[in-house]
Amino acid sequence: MKCLKDGVSRKYIWMLYSILSVSLHVDPKNASGLFLATGREYVKNDFNFSNYLTTIIARGARYLSSEKRESLIQQIEKYITSFKIDIKNISSFYYCYGVLLKGVDSEDETGKALFAQKNKKIFSKALESMKLLMFEENDENIVNLDSSIFEDPSNTTQKDGDDVKLARILGTIGEIIDYDNSFIHKDLFENLQLIMSSKLCKKALRVHQEQTLNSTILSSNNFQNSQLSSSRKSVPLSIMKNFMSHHIIYTNITSIVQAQCVLVMGKICLVNEMFARDVIPVFMKELVTSRNHIIKNNIIVVTHDLCKRYTSLIGSYLDIFGACLNDDSVAVRIATLHCLTKLLKEGYLIWQGDIMFRFVSTLLDQVSRVREYAEFCLVETLLPVSLDMFYVNFVDCLFYFNGVEHPSWIYYNQAKGNNNLGKFNKHKSLQGINNEKDRHKLYRFMLKNMTNTQKVAVTQKICIEIFENIYKESLDFCDINVQNMLVDSFKLLCSEDGKVRFNMEKSGDEEDDVYEESEVRREVIAITAGEASKAALKELYVKEVMKYLLKLRHFLYTLKNSRCAFEFLKYLLFLSNEHNHEFYKIINENKQLSTSVSNDIIQLKNKLSQNNIV
């Protein structure tokens, strides 16, 4: 490796060593020597390389001499307490530090006690450093309202990257809490909450300072008026009383700091339910109001972990969580897809309602990377776990994306005491003729991933929940969205993806049959039985569908809706072509009906042929 002049190649080799150290013995001597030789700036800026070295050292620490181990402990402790380690590298450094002290992955009680002592020392220094970067002592009794402490951090350059240092301090505190949650206390709570609510506190402090200034001016003119005005003032927030001698340095509390604060608060929530009850609503509000994709991305990751720990607490905010699938940031959308997929796969969330509709609609995302990842999550991850996920919810999607309220949703709203019938949560309207292509993309994707048995069941559900509800007038057919839904149903049932195929294939077990029949005889029996079963199934299928179609035909002809009637006839033509024998066998039972339907089909064929000629 010393002969390699290319630094990139050396990094790749160290990366390979770090991966191999998981299952194989990799001598840590070279890695430890190189680590001790690297400067602070190298550790600070080169995340990957430092991570490879600390990983190898941690996994082979028991092979190091006591002198080398002590040197590494001192060096890493120096890096940690100076808060110069890159945020992404803090976890790897701290784990290596704990292993070297024999306080992690060890049964050594002395090492554990020493590690706990070091944690206490580092935590105290981190908390003190955090306060120094967050607060500054007032020089005057009245703070100038135009002072930089009230300026937007985005418009002010931080002194020597104080915001980055503050974020690293928070990362260090988070690591310590991971190893020992006894360091969680009220003082830490208040500082973290202050960071997350810095904008709100900033406004409150401005109002408080304005009131103080006005009070001082009035007192110089009229003492009595000053007393009267002060008695009518609103009482400042209780937390502000602690800052009478100090002000908050808002230029240091940037989005980088808040994003790191989210992770620390999430770790505390996992071990403190009372804190979680207060913090989760704040996180959800931040998902709605924040425009910073880093903060939102971290909240999504934290919410994923909290959902496993406090499923009932997160449940009432699923609409907000799911809305991140339509966020402006591609990173946020992909992170949401990833976290929702894991929660759905592991059973913490149920594939239904708003989450389902939003998840499916990501297949229409403008960014191909998001579309492809959404399809991968649906087909490769979720479908094998729940084979009926598309079949069960297909009709609900027909209603939802057409903007039609399903009758069962109305009953559900009534049971909850919600009388706003006809209104339901539509995050992204796909209703109307202009969105027909987009709707069909979603429907055909779902149909493509169904078995023939599921397609038969979906056809029956469409007949019952759409066709029957229309001719029984449970749905308002005057609503153009209901008409569009009916047209969608006909087109999908005629489509290649929605077509039901009655192919009776031999099962794999049949090849292992031990009966002493000849191969030819068994094949003849299988073909004969298959054809008989196929014919019987087709007849049952067509008979069941025609039962609803004939009633719907009368309803459509009575209303003289030409558009829906035309698509209806096209579906009849499709059935007559696909299942010719069964179709005419059923309608021939009524001669008058047979003549009427046959004439309709002939007229449709003539019209379609004329259109093709034109």
Overall morphology: elongated
Estimate the helix proportion, in percent: 55-70%
Poorly predicted runs? 141-158, 203-239, 420-425, 506-517
Using only CA atoms, what is the Rg? 34 Å
**Arrangement of strands in the largest sheet:** 1-2
Structural class: mainly alpha
Strand content: under 5%
Distance between the termini: 75 Å
Count the DSSP helices: 28
Helices and strands, in order, run as: HHHHHHHEHHHHEHHHHHHHHHHHHHHHHH
Mean pLDDT: 81
How many distinct beta strands? 2
Keywords: Cell cycle, Cell division, DNA condensation, Mitosis, Nucleus
GO molecular function, one term: histone binding
Main location: nucleus
Subcellular location: Nucleus
List keywords for this structure.
614 residues, mainly alpha, 68% helix
Description:
The chain is mainly alpha-helical and 614 residues long. Among the domains are: 1-100, no CATH class; 532-613, no CATH class. 68% of the residues lie in helices and 1% in strands. The chain has 28 helices and two strands. The chain has helices spanning 7-20, 29-37, 40-45, 47-59, 66-82, 90-100, 109-134, 162-179, 186-196, 198-221, 223-231, 255-271, 273-289, 293-309, 311-315, 318-323, 330-345, 353-361, 368-382, 389-401, 407-415, 436-448, 452-471, 480-494, 519-559, 562-578, 580-587, 591-613; strands spanning 135-137, 246-248. α17 (330-345) runs parallel beside α19. The longest helix has 41 residues, at 519-559. The protein is elongated. The termini are far apart. One of its GO terms (cellular component) is condensin complex.
